[in-house]
Amino acid sequence: MTGDSKNGSPLAHGDHPVADLRGIPLVANRGIPLDLERVARVRVNTSAVERRAQSHVARRSVKKDWQAAWLLRAITCMDLTTLSGDDTDERVRRLCAKARQPIEQELVRRLEIESLGIKVAAVCVYHRFVETAARALEGSGIKVAAVSTGFPAGLSPMEERIAEIRRSVEAGADEIDIVITRAYVFEGKWQELYNEVATFKQACGKAHMKAILGTGDLLTLRNVARASFVAMMAGADFIKTSTGKEPTNATLPVGLVMARAIREYAQETRMAVGFKPAGGIRTAKQSIDWLGLMKEELGTPWMKADLFRFGASGLLNDIERQLEHHVTGRYSAGYRHPLA
Q1: 19-336 in CATH: which number?
Q2: What pTM value is reported for the model?
């Protein structure tokens, strides 16, 4: 791992910018040595964060054609997900078919967006279904993401978690969603957390790694911010809120804290880290709220799939209904837009 966390040094020779943060060119995250002083300096004003999040959702939302455009953008940022105990190969194949054509063809025609080729960013499955998804998505450009490292608790032995990552990559996964050990956050064991995430990153090889923090379990926004910094220092390509299995998953206050951690890390290191809220995002309005937060806090590069994803299952259904209302003036029944 290389980099400089303290002076925001210029891009190294041969680096290629992947994003721009308000005039600052950024490269993909390589990670930096753990800076415990930086972690200790993290402070979060919880009441101010909550007020800012509330003011964000209270503003007038985008309307009409602009709303339709934002909803189409939300679809392109989705990790369409099935992580149920009763998953089957056939369900995964149907989900992959939906990923390839997320909007009903007649609706595509009436929206006049045939040339856009709208599709989701990735399909997220358990390791057991990685090969099935890879075959179903071949040639589509849609990524295969696998949850790994003892998802959702992340408490299996380290050797097993590393082996699971490697098996998923060998099976065809383009992206790996890993789970951190939350106990390291509670106990302030930042070196152990850093070592864990860095080891997972190395096991991922060329696959992109999303670090799931389990924010609903972390108790305080300060813990969320500190865990975010450590995961980014250790080389995470994305930081992700939740597994979707916690009682509390993605919330806008948590998203605001993580987005500002990403911004500060980018300003200090000239490296870009993506963000993925997951769990509890079910409505089209919520997707617009999240995209708006990314635009205001990080800028337009974080409104694209390279740096922003939704962990979603039911969200696509509501977005399709809203798009149909945009075209016809009527809401369709939810069952007209099945996922799998």
Answers
A1: 3.20.20.70
A2: 0.92
